[in-house]
């Protein structure tokens, strides 16, 4: 089999891992890495034994596929250049800055008839893969995605940086358009929103509460689903899936607590999980990492011409929903009236300190 000639455009925090994984695939030849910062390109290229570039133009016409991992503001210009040249593209999430830009890329990919994949990596999380194999029709979902402030991706806020992962998962899991969106959130450090909570009401009756924060001390990424079929809980960090369902006995006859005798009632607490509700814990941690799975999937789509699991349309739909969350967020009335203050930057002045501020020693080296 001929090796697929590939390049990674943007080899910063995440792109260097795309390049490392692709360079280790036997059916891929990493012909180059591109970074606007030439030193960064040289460093990564030297490590991986490939050629550094500070511009992508020399690679047009010399690659079979590319992975684009630049900051979001550059996704459209870089991806459109490759799609126009008929080169299949994997672009990191969020797909672009605007829905109009995403629509343009979708049209270019369709015209060139090449795969166009968006890097919503959690779709390749083994715990999520396990869940979607099962017949579940979510009716209430709670999604939480929290992490510490890293100073990265500050060109966007917590909605486009973090929440968009869960918006994509929800759209794929619930499979229904969203009817109503309400949201509240604050720009704690100024600039873009750092924490957000959104409530989504889907046309099929499902309701989702989605929280994203990039100023939380400990990371947490989880999804909890309630459905007629049972409950599913995913921890995306540990890649564990917990499933709970009614036993056949309960599904058939229910649980008539009022008519249980005293002994049966006394056993109830111990028997709830086991006899009445059955629990299955699945550990996805032994399966490979999801970035490798995502890249392998893309390579396979390029070879076969199959439509990627996360298509350009999926990336666009997640972005459109994210824009609706941002609009709801900007219209949130902190004091309950439309005259303001409104939105993530309008958080009212604090009434005081919650506790006596601690004195912080200044870093002498600074
Ligand atoms: P980063 O700033 O660490 O890296 C981006 C790199 O791109 C930098 O080295 C920069 O010099 C380079 N660059 C900028 N403009 C360029 C251009 N026009 N051509 C070539 N190189 C260019 O950012 P990051 O954290 O690696 O994020 C990159 C992208 O990946 C963003 O879109 C981000 O949203 C996405 N991301 C996705 C996930 C995920 O979970 N899927 C996680 C982190 C980041």
Could you list some keywords that capture this structure?
Rossmann fold; binds nicotinamide-adenine-dinucleotide; 10 helices; 8-stranded mixed sheet; 366 residues; single chain; 6-stranded parallel sheet; 2 domains; Dihydrodipicolinate Reductase, domain 2; alpha/beta
Report on this model:
This protein has helices at 15-23, 38-48, 75-84, 99-112, 126-132, 158-174, 248-253, 262-271, 290-304, 312-330; strands spanning 4-9, 28-34, 52-53, 65-68, 89-92, 116-119, 140-146, 178-186, 195-202, 207-213, 220-227, 230-235, 240-246, 277-283. By secondary structure, the protein is of the alpha/beta class. It has two domains: 4-121 and 290-309, NAD(P)-binding Rossmann-like Domain (Rossmann fold); 124-283, Dihydrodipicolinate Reductase, domain 2 (2-Layer Sandwich). It has an eight-stranded mixed sheet. The chain has a six-stranded parallel sheet with strand order 3-2-1-4-5-6, sandwiched between helices. Helix 4 links the parallel strand 5 (89-92) and strand 6 (116-119). Helix 3 runs parallel beside helix 4 (99-112), helix 4 (99-112) runs antiparallel to helix 10 and helix 6 packs across helix 10. Bound molecules: nicotinamide-adenine-dinucleotide. Nicotinamide-adenine-dinucleotide is lined by residues 9-10, 12-15, 34-37, 40, 69-72, 74, 78, 92-93, 119, 121, 152-153.
């Amino acid at each position: 089999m001929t090796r697929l000639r590939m390049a990674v455009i943007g080899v910063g925090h995440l792109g260097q891992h795309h390049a490392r994984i692709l360079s280790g695939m036997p059916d891929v030849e990493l012909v180059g890495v591109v970074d606007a910062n030439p030193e960064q390109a040289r460093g990564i290229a030297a490590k991986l034994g490939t050629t550094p570039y500070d511009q992508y133009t020399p690679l047009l016409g010399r690659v079979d596929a590319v992975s684009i991992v630049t900051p979001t503001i550059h996704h459209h210009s870089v991806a459109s250049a490759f799609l126009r040249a008929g080169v299949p593209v994997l672009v990191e999430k969020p797909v672009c800055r605007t829905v109009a830009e995403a629509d343009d890329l979708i049209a270019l990919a369709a015209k060139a008839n090449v795969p166009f994949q968006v890097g919503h990596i959690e779709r390749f999380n083994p715990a999520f893969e396990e869940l979607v194999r099962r017949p579940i029709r979510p009716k209430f979902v709670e999604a939480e995605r929290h992490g510490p402030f890293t100073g990265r991706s500050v060109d966007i806020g917590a909605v486009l940086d973090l929440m968009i992962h869960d918006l994509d998962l929800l759209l794929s899991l619930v499979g229904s358009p969203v009817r109503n969106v309400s949201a509240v959130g604050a720009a704690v450090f100024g600039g873009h929103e750092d924490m957000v909570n959104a409530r989504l009401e889907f046309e099929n009756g499902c309701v989702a509460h989605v929280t994203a924060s990039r100023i939380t001390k400990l990371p947490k990424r989880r999804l909890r689903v309630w459905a007629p079929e049972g409950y599913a809980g995913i921890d995306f960090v540990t890649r564990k899936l917990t499933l709970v369902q009614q036993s056949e006995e309960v599904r058939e006859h229910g649980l008539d607590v009022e008519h249980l005798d005293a002994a049966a009632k006394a056993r109830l607490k111990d028997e709830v999980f086991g006899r009445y509700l059955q629990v299955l814990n699945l550990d996805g941690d032994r399966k490979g990492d999801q970035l490798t799975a995502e890249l392998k999937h893309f390579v396979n789509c390029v070879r076969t011409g199959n439509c990627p699991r996360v298509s350009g349309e999926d990336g666009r739909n997640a972005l459109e929903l994210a824009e609706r969350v941002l609009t709801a967020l900007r219209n949130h009335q902190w004091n309950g009236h439309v005259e303001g203050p409104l939105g993530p930057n309008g958080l009212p002045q604090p009434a005081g300190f919650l506790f006596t501020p601690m004195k912080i020693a200044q870093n002498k080296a600074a």
